[in-house]
Design a protein that fits this description.
The protein has about 120 residues and is mainly α. It contains six helices and two strands, in the order αβαααβαα. It has a single domain, classed as Orthogonal Bundle (Arc Repressor Mutant, subunit A). A two-stranded parallel ribbon has the order 1-2. It is globular, with a radius of gyration of 15 Å.
């Protein structure tokens, strides 16, 4: 039987979902920028987004979160990566031949400054 998620992970998950929901259409941010803002590592953000329920995936703009180099994560399942690219293109983002978002600075959504958060209970 798998170990249930910790309360800290549940709090991290809720904050990732909240921040992703705030990314405006036609903009993107990175796993790392969310992580820095939250005082966690980018892998935490990626883990949360990779485990969305079907309902969450349908209602949350998860596709607006990309790798630090402004491209779709090369670790993503190819079908899901193609879906992400389609969704971003539908919002007006363009990609170059190498798969990087063009004019990334014009479309980047800054999450905010690093917050000094302790996710675990003292």
């Amino acid at each position: 039987m798998p170990k249930p998620p910790s309360r800290a992970f549940a709090r991290i998950r809720a904050e990732v979902l909240r921040l992703v929901a705030l990314i405006p259409e036609g903009r993107f941010t990175t796993y790392g920028s969310i992580a820095v803002h939250m005082n966690v590592v980018a892998r935490h953000v990626a883990t949360v987004l990779s485990r969305l329920s079907e309902e969450e995936s349908a209602s949350l703009p998860w596709h607006r979160v990309v790798s630090a180099d402004a491209r779709i994560s090369p670790n993503m399942d190819p079908k899901l990566a193609a879906r992400q690219k389609r969704l971003l293109r539908a919002e007006g983002l363009r990609f170059n031949r190498e798969g990087f978002i063009q004019d990334a600075d014009d479309h980047f959504h800054p999450v905010g400054l690093r917050r000094n958060i302790r996710w675990s209970d003292p």
